[in-house]
Amino acid sequence: MSIVLYELCGADAARPFSPFAWRIRMALKHKGLDFECRPKPFSEIPAIAPEAGKTVPILVDGDRTICDSWAIATYLEDTYPDRPSLFGGEGGRAAAKLIEGWVNASVSSLIAQLIIKDIWDVLGPDDQVYFRETREARFGRSLEEVQSGREDRLAEMGTALLPLHLMLKSQPFIGGEAPLHTDYLLFGTLQWARITSPFQFIDPSLPVGQWRERCLDLFDGFGRSVPAA
Question: Is residue 73 part of a domain?
Fold first, then answer.
C-alpha cells in the first residue's frame, strides 16, 4: 500500500499550500518513498482521522496514522533507516528541532501577517467563513487590516532571516553541502507564501533567495510542480 499524505488546499485542489505538509512532501522525496497526496479543504480535515488529530499533515502508512509534521518526520526517519537520513544523526535531529521552533515562532508569524488576506482569497466559500472568523479572532483585527502596509514591514522579515542569510554565504544548504530536514522546515513555510500570494518578500539575488531556488530545483523541480501565485 502506498503512503498517503493528507494536506491542505483551497478552492483549487491542484494547489496544496500547507507549510507543514510541504515539509513532509519534501521529506518523503528525500527518503525516496512513493506516496499519494490527498488535498482537502479546511472543512474536511477534522473528519480524516479524528483519532489521530484534526490538522494536516496526516500521514497514513499501512496501519499507522500519524498527525503533526514533526512526528511524521521522526517516524519516517526511524521507520526507514535504510533510506537517506533526514537529520544526519542525533545531533542533526536536535538542531532540526531548534530550526523548527525558530521558523514557527519567528518566521511563519511574520509571513502570516504579510499574506493573510491573500490566503483567504484562494479558499472556497465555506473555508473563507471559517478562516476569517478564526484569524480575525486571533489577530483582533480584520484580515485586510492585518495585511495592510505590508511593504513597510519587509525590514522585520529581513531581520528574522538574517542568521540564515549569514549562514548561506558559506554553504549551499542549511544542512551543509546537501539539504536535510532543516532545509525543508523553512522551505515549507516559504512554499506556503509562494503558492498563496503574489507578494514578494524574498530578494532572489540574496543568499536566502538563491537557497530557495535551489530547494525548488530539488527532486527534479518537485517544488515547482505547483506554480507560484
Answer: yes
